[in-house]
Amino acid sequence: MVSRENTVYGIAVGGAFALLFVIAVASPPDWLAGVGLLGYYTVGVGASHFYLARRGEAGELAVGSHWRFLAALGCWLTLGAFALFGPDWQLRSLETDVLLTVAGLGVLLVYWILEARDGYVATRPT
């Protein structure tokens, strides 16, 4: 039997692939294709987590885990938008892309630490 959570994920991923198909067929300029790719991640990954977190449905993931993932996704989307539309600059000898990659990996590391801590606390005997 298909769970509600999997149905929500399936609908979100289907919408995201429809967006990718439109981008592929339309052949927009690079900046618009970049915006479409950010939209793909927003719809395909973020929409399902937002829906389940907003409704308070835990499913296989705790509600707090959905919100943490959305916070991390928001950071990654902000970094992606900055990579698309931000100025090209350097910090010492490091290019913008390198700095944004390091920032994205930092967000990933913080997300993993928070998830590991929450998982540990949830399984710890009281």
List keywords for this structure.
mainly alpha
Explain the overall architecture.
A hairpin with a 2-residue loop joins β1 and β2. Helices cover 79% and strands 3% of the residues. The two termini are 34 Å apart. It has helices at residues 4-26, 30-55, 63-85, 96-123, and strands at 90-91, 94-95. It has a two-stranded antiparallel sheet with strand order 1-2. It is mainly alpha-helical and 126 residues long. It is built from 4 helices and 2 strands. α1 packs antiparallel against α2, α2 (30-55) packs antiparallel against α3 (63-85) and α3 runs antiparallel to α4 (96-123). The radius of gyration is 17 Å and the shape is flat.
Strand content: under 5%
Average pLDDT? 84
Strand arrangement within the widest β-sheet reads 1-2
**What is the radius of gyration?**
17 Å
Percent in helix: over 70%
Structural class by secondary-structure content = mainly alpha
